[in-house]
Amino acid sequence: MKIILTHEVSGLGTAGDVVDVKDGYARNYLVPRGFAIRWTKGGEKDVAQIRRARKIHEIATIEQANEVKAQLEGVKVRLAVRSGDAGRLFGSVTQADVAAAIKAAGGPDVDKRRVELGAPIKTLGAHQVSVRLHADVVAKLGVEVIAA
């Protein structure tokens, strides 16, 4: 099935790309979550609009990405969450939580879809988080999860 991506999907493409995926993947995952729309002849107009919006929000050059990377790696991120007695969290830390904590710590505004956790964060302590700023630039930063 041909679809138009409306958001960046790792391993598949960026917003505005027209890709061919299996029908079930598109019908059951990408379209219901708003990551993609079905491709139509009229949808080509949408592609141009999505690409214009992407250019406004994305980091255009590797130099800009390296500047943002330096800012991110210099930020000390602490995230206060509710936890139980043994240090296990009630729920888990999400990408949106990390993006908000970066902004609150004085770092640059980061889109939550660019934050990669690797594994769900469900315990207190220090954790490594990656932020994909550009296709070739990934910032690694430490996030300290503390009890609220």
From TrEMBL:
It comes from the Bacteria. InterPro entries: Ribosomal_bL9, Ribosomal_bL9/RNase_H1_N, Ribosomal_bL9_bac/chp, Ribosomal_bL9_C, Ribosomal_bL9_C_sf, Ribosomal_bL9_N, Ribosomal_bL9_N_sf. This is Large ribosomal subunit protein bL9. The keyword RNA-binding applies. Residues 13-40 form the Ribosomal protein L9 domain. GO terms for cellular component: ribosome. HAMAP family: Ribosomal_bL9 (MF_00503). Binds to the 23S rRNA. It holds the Pfam family Ribosomal_L9_C. Belongs to the bacterial ribosomal protein bL9 family. It comes from Streptomyces violascens. Keywords: Ribonucleoprotein, Ribosomal protein, RNA-binding, rRNA-binding.
